[in-house]
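Look over this entry.
=====
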Amino acid sequence: MRSLVVYYSLKGKTKGVAEYIAKELKADMERIEPLHPINGEKFMSFYGDRDEFGNDTRTDISPPKHDWKKYDLIVVGTPIWAWAPAPPVHLYLKREGIKGKKVAIFSTSDGDSRDALTKMKGQFAGNSVIAQKEFISRDVIEYKISKKKAVAWARNLKKSHP
């Protein structure tokens, strides 16, 4: 199965998990790149300009390097900011309009991100969301724990959806 791991990472935690998953799946990787750097100290300022649906109106991203249409499985990873997927991920999903694919989603956060993953699932109408996983920051900081969990999750994806 041809796989693409798409992710955004501000401080490297989501990137690390994405790399473990991509390596296990032998997947291509697509890093979502904001056109303007997001300051790690003041990332909440990106929540200042929102439209009536709660969408960030200031974040812009570079065009993707990979065409998701060429893949069977799309894995999307995001940090959770203010109980929601990071704005660059939201914008990528909105722009790309992924349809007709198997999708797996994961998050990195300091706490419970299930509500955010549920919201994110809503952006995948017309797809089969086959799995979701949350990685808690304390596990990501502990290299061996996050690697073990990420690799196990990726192996399960391969086994259950060849």
Summary: Residues 3-32+62-160 form a domain with the Rossmann fold fold (CATH 3.40.50.360). Residues 45-49 have pLDDT under 50 and may be disordered.
